Amino acid sequence: MENKTAVADPHMRRLVEARLNGSGFAQSLGVEIEIVSPGNVNVSLAYGDQLSDRDGCFHEGVLASTASVALDLAAGTIVGDNAEFKTAEYKFNNFQPACGHRLLAKSHIIKSGRTLVVAEADLFSITTSGERHVATVLATLITV
Amino acid sequence: MVEKFQAKNPDFEAVVRDSFARQPFMAHVNAEMTALAPGVCELKTVRMTELTQQHGFFHGGLVVSLADSAAGYAAYSLFPPSSTVLTVDLKTNFLNPANGQMLKAVGTVISEGDKLYHVKAEAFSIDNGKEKLCLTGLFTMMCLQGKSDGVAVDGK
Fold it and tell me: Which of A1, A96, A138 minimises the CB distance to B93?
């Protein structure tokens, strides 16, 4: 896969954390940063009843939101920490209910152009028996 | 190729290749099935003027068509016997112009259910052996059990 990756920056994680801290919505979900590298950010959050659907699993809206947060953070590692993005469009494929004590989103920049950034995110529910791939997102972000 | 899934039909390869051979449109664009494994399908076609758009690149509609067929047959390779496949939805992102001499599409199943299969497909433009990713897409395929994979009668 083709990746336009920036030079690894020792401050990258701190910049991504600052970016996350600037989002009140991401904070309200309880999103935490796991792994940061150029073009890749993994985030996760803990299950809570306020995030649940009627089946006691994560609500699909939480999955979409978590993916959106992860995609924005990954794009920030490529384009620059001051860059602002909006999601131009995305497609969300949901495979199975996201039941578990945590939700993990792994985002990856596929291509970064002058205006548009194409990125994907995979969502996993985490249980005591391991990770389950529950959904995937393919998105276009636009620099604003 | 990494085989993540197991075929339910021991004759999957013959079934998939037979279905592909019966697609007039794929024959029309000279597409060939160059690799097949459970959950993975690769198709290739060589550049012809008739397949290009005004800049001389492979036409975007063709790139999507090849990716769609690769995705569909990747899913079909995992279907039970006596079933057929139809695309439910697709979304693609064009990443680079497909301006090479050859076009390759690879479909890879991400998730399988009873009826719906989620498939990732990528298309590569190939020039002098160098591959360039030109399209990525997400597809949903439906498994229609008990339906013929032959020509539909009265639209059924």
Answer: A138
Cα separations in angstroms, A103 against A27, A97, B2:
15, 11, 26
Q: Where are the alpha helices (DSSP H) in chain B?
A: 12-21, 24-28, 60-76
Dist CA A87 CA A117 (whole Å): 9
Number of domains in chain A: 1
Residue linked to tokens 């609500």: A59
Residue A24 lies inside a defined structural domain of this protein:
yes
Domains of chain B: 12-145 (3.10.129.10)
Tell me the pLDDT band of A88, cut-offs 50, 70 and 90: very high
Question: Quick check: helix, strand or coil at residue B138?
Answer: strand
Phi-psi sector, A80: left (phi>0), alpha (psi -120 to 50), beta = left
Give B93-132 pLDDT, tens digit per residue: 999 999 999 999 999 999 999 999 999 999 999 999 999 9
* Cβ pair B136:A93 closer than 8 A: no
d(CA B96, CA B133): 7
Partner residues linked to A133 by β-bridges: A124
pTM: 0.90
Mean pLDDT over B129-147 rounds to 97
Average pLDDT over every residue of B21-29: 97
Is A6 within the bounds of a domain?
A: no
| Interchain contact, A110 vs B96, CB within 8 Å | no
Q: Which residue has the tokens 């079933």?
A: B83
Longest distance between any two alpha carbons in chain B, whole Å: 46
pLDDT reading at A5 higher than 50: no
Would the CB atoms of A133 and B110 count as touching at under 8 Å?
yes
